[in-house]
Amino acid sequence: MLEDTSGCPFKAKLNEAQVYHSIYTDERLFNEIGCEGCITIDIALAKGGTEAIVESYYSVMKSQKMCGGQCNATLALRTKLDWSMPPILECDRAVKEIAEIFINGDKELSLPKHATPTLGSRAKYSQESKVLKRLRTKDPRLPFLL
C-alpha cells in the first residue's frame, strides 16, 4: 500500500513494460535518473529485484580481482568504476576530454600538462637516427608490403 500526498492509502501496480518505455523514451526522466540509475533499474526489472543488482556488482568485482591480491579499497574503487561506467568503446567524449587534459593540462584545476616522451633514439654523434639510417641504407625486408 502506498499513500498519496494527503495521506490516503491506495494500491499501485508496477507496469514493467511502461517503466522500460518511459526510461528510454522520456528524455527528462532519463536525465533525472542518469545512466547509472537506468542501468540499475534495467537490471532489477530484468533479473528480478535487488538480488540481481548485488549479483551483477559481485560478478564485476570478481572480474576486477588481481592475482596476488590487492587492497580492499582499491578493489572496491575498481569495481565501482567498472560497474557504473559504460564499455570503453562508448566513451568517446570522455576519452577525448581525458586525453586533452593529459596532453594540455587544465589551468582551471591547476593540472600541469604531462611531459610527452621523446619517441626517438638519435645517435649521440650523428644528425640521423638509427631507424632513418637503416631505412636509407638497407633494402626493405618485405618489399611486397610497400
Would you mind describing this structure in some detail?
This protein is mainly alpha-helical and 146 residues long. It has a domain of 59 residues. The chain is built from 6 helices and 2 strands; from the N terminus they run E-E-H-H-H-H-H-H. The protein has a two-stranded antiparallel ribbon. A hairpin with a 5-residue loop joins strand 1 and strand 2. Helix 1 packs antiparallel against helix 2, helix 2 crosses helix 3 and helix 3 crosses helix 4. The radius of gyration is 27 Å and the shape is elongated. The N and C termini lie far apart (74 Å). The relative contact order is 0.05. The model has no long low-confidence stretch (mean pLDDT 78).
- Computed over alpha carbons, the radius of gyration is 27 Å
Uncertain parts: none
What is the N-to-C succession of helices and strands? EEHHHHHH
Helical run tally: 6
The largest beta-sheet arranges its strands as 1-2
| Helix proportion | 40-55%
Label the structural class.
mainly alpha
> Averaged pLDDT, please?
78
How much of the sequence is in beta strands?
under 5%
The largest pleated sheet is described as: 2 strands, antiparallel
Note the gap between the termini: 74 Å
The counted number of beta strands is: 2
3D shape = elongated
Concise structural overview:
This protein has 146 residues and is an all-alpha fold.
List its traits:
single chain, 146 residues, mainly alpha, two-stranded antiparallel ribbon, 2 strands, 55% helix, 3% strand
